[in-house]
Amino acid sequence: MVGETTPGKLSRAMSTTFPQTITSAPSEPMAPASTLSAAPRPTRRHYGDRVYRWLLTALALTLPLLLVAIVAELIVSSWPSIHKFGFSFIWTSVWDPVGEVYGAAPMIFGTLVSSLLALVIAVPLSLGVAIFLTEFAPKWLRQPVAFLVELLAAIPSVVYGLWGIYVLIPLLRDYAAPPIRALLGWTPLFNGIFYGNSMLAGGIILAIMIVPYIAAISREVLLAVPATQREAALGLGATRWEAVWGAVLPYGRAGIIGAVMLGLGRALGETMAVTMVIGNRHDIALSLFQPGYTMAAAIANEFSEATSTMYLSALFEVGLVLFVITIGVNAFARLLVWRVARGTAVGSKAL
Amino acid sequence: MSIRVATRRIKSGFFTGLVVCLCFLAVLPLFLIFADLVHKGASSINWDFFVKIPVAAGQSGGGVSNAIVGTIIIVMIACAVGIPIGIGTGLYLAEYGIGKLGWFVRFLADVLNGTPSIVVGIFAWTWFVKPVHHFSALAGGVALALLMVPMLARTTEEMLRLVPNSLREAALALGYPRWRTSLSVMARVALSGIVTGSLVGVARVAGETAPLLFTALGNINFDTNIKEPMQTLSLQIFTYATGPFEDWHRLAWASALVLMSLVLALALAARWATRKRYGT
Fold it and tell me: What mean pLDDT do residues B223-237 have?
């Protein structure tokens, strides 16, 4: 079995790492583990290696092909709509399937507002979890609490929606909305009567759903902060909180921003739970008490009713806008997180 | 001076308390949701629930056997398509993933992991439903598989990277060809981690609804033909929760409890597999 390695190469190999007895064609790039290659003399055995490599490469190409296919398909399918409405699709708000006029502004507005509201609620909670788990919690508590937070990510979206309709909305209506209205009813944000299905309910459900993602990645980012960072702060006489706030968090800032952006990406594309509680009204309302609409919800609700080509095409364009925004946000976030912990796969453990 | 120290201590204590409260608040919905699922769902679960199919709207009784079987079938299709591609991509990233293509695929896997599932749904519709003019469980399964691949690829790669390189070197030194080193040494050692990743992936797609709306569609009858529309628990919950009948809401909670138990069992199994790895 052994024997392709020439003695000279072997001794050279011993000085660096273990000898690798596999020959590989010179044109092939080196694999991570191998630091050298022996004489390129193909034998029957290398056949297996070559087949293996081609097979894996073919499988790995699925993802790039999938991306290309999705983008191409969305563009092709939405072409009639893109051609007819141009950019006005994005900022006009008439959505009239009968008159065949489509403008997606209310959905885009609703998607952004509900996601931002979710971030406003979820970021403090997630950072609380991450800081508690890395800095303050006793060792025995860390794993169980982390597991519980991860479980939040395991709950299916449609179950969140069910809970939102029959538990969260009644709770909000009976206990949260009246005091908010009494206190802040004069502001445009909480204007009007709270009927239930609303931007507020959508934002809260989204917040609960994205907490586990932001918390898990922030936690990994904080774990990657060198211990010397906090020890130095403590050594200078900082209190524990001052060490966290002044030394640990600033060090992981880019990674935490990345984590928040990933949460945003999740919130933007979330469909079922939002559809079930946000009210699905095609309208731009400033008040969080009013119903709204999101891009994902519009597709979920109207896709099967879309009978005309133009209607379908408009919905595909909504999908295209949603896809481009989400992928852009995700890509930016990944680059941020990667920059913090280069080489290690920080963040990919989140579901 | 000492007052200053005291205020700093108090401030530190205050924020520590705040962090604990925030953490508690973050976990609270989990308990609320579980409590409501059991409270509102358990009473409707009986033998009929598992063996009967839904009755006509407005009547009481009936079960969701078609949805339970449908969920299992569609998830199995998703596994059959998604797991080989996902694990293969992960193996590629771990074995050959240092070049430009490796970087690109890794990046794409991370980015596509956050694809809105509804977009995958309409994509699957254009490719697998529109050409044949027929909704099918197969299309639904493939849509779920597309959601699984990016996540599986990254988990597999990470698990393989945890295996000490000395094992690879030892195998290569013994004259193993590269593919056997990769499969029967590296992948063998990382197996429990890869199984965990797969289970988490399955748990995630088992509850998906959005990609199935326009592919598997749903079906009020019991049907195991994968070329026909098929019901799943998630679709059933959506229909029942948004419907007008009290009896439907009851069944929605019961279905949600069953779906949640399924997902939870998978999550716990995944955790158990990981523990075993660290235990030995």
Answer: 90
Q: How many Å is the Cα radius of gyration of chain B?
A: 24
pLDDT of residue B91: 94
pLDDT digits (tens, 9 = 90+) for A164-185: 999 999 999 999 999 998 898 8
Instruction: Find the domain containing A50 and state its range.
Output: 7-60
pLDDT interval class at A342 (50, 70, 90): low
User: Which B-chain residues 28-47 have CB contacts (< 8 A) with chain A?
Assistant: 29-30, 32-33, 36-37, 40
Q: Give pLDDT tens digits for B68-98.
A: 999 999 999 999 999 999 999 999 999 998 8
Chain B hits for A155, CB-CB cut-off 8 Å, are 30, 33, 207, 260, 263
* pTM score: 0.87
Kindly report the average pLDDT of chain A as a whole number: 84
Note whether A156 and A277 are same-domain residues: yes
What distance in Å separates the CA atoms of residue B241 and residue A157, rounded to the nearest whole number? 13
Q: Look at residues B95, B121, B195, B205 and name the one whose alpha carbon lies nearest to residue A60.
A: B95
Task: For residue A102, report the phi and psi dihedrals to the nearest 5 degrees.
Answer: -130, 130
Average pLDDT, whole number, for chain B?
90
- Residues from chain A contacting residue B234 (CB–CB below 8 Å): 156, 158, 272
Tokens 């033998």 appear where?
Answer: B47
SS (H, E, C) A253-318: HHHHHHHHHHHHHHHHHCCHHHHHHCECCCCCCCCCCCCECCHHHHHHHHHHHCCCHHHHHHHHHH
Q: Which residues numbered 81-120 in B keep a CB inside 8 Å of some CB on A?
A: 84-85, 88-89, 91-99, 101, 104-105, 107-120
Look at residue B218 in the predicted model and tell me its pLDDT.
87
Same domain for B14 and B55? no
Which region, left, alpha or beta, applies to residue B46 given φ > 0 means left and ψ of -120 to 50 means alpha?
Answer: beta
Q: What local confidence, expressed as pLDDT, does residue B273 receive?
A: 75
The parent domain of residue B23 ranges over 2-44
Taking the C-alpha atoms of residue B191 and residue B166, their distance in angstroms, rounded to an integer, is 17
Mean pLDDT over B132-157 rounds to 93
pLDDT at A73: 95
In a domain? residue A347? no
Strand partners for A279:
A292
* Same domain? A38 vs A161: no
Q: CA-CA distance, A194 to A290, in Å (whole number)? A: 7
Q: How far apart are CA B6 and CA B56, in angstroms?
A: 70
Decide: residue A101, CB within 10 A, 0-12 exposed, 13-18 middle, 19+ buried.
Answer: middle
Across residues B28-40, what is the average pLDDT? 95
Chain A residues whose beta carbon lies within 8 Å of the beta carbon of residue B32: 163, 167
Q: How many residues does chain A have?
A: 351
Do A59 and B92 lie within an 8 Å CB cutoff? yes
User: Sorting pLDDT into bands at 50, 70 and 90, what band is B17?
Assistant: very high
- Complex-level ipTM: 0.92
Q: Are A339 and A221 in contact (CB under 8 A)?
A: no
At A43 the pLDDT is: 56
Q: Report the C-alpha gap between B106 and A154 in whole angstroms.
A: 24
Q: Do residues A221 and A252 make contact, with C-beta atoms less than 8 angstroms apart? A: yes
Structure tokens at A236: 């200078």
Distance in angstroms (rounded) separating the CA atoms of residues B53 and B222: 7
Q: Which two tokens stand for residue B195?
A: 């199984």
Q: How many residues does chain B have?
A: 280
Domain count, chain A: 2
Q: Kindly report the nearest CA distance between residue A258 and chain B, in angstroms.
A: 12
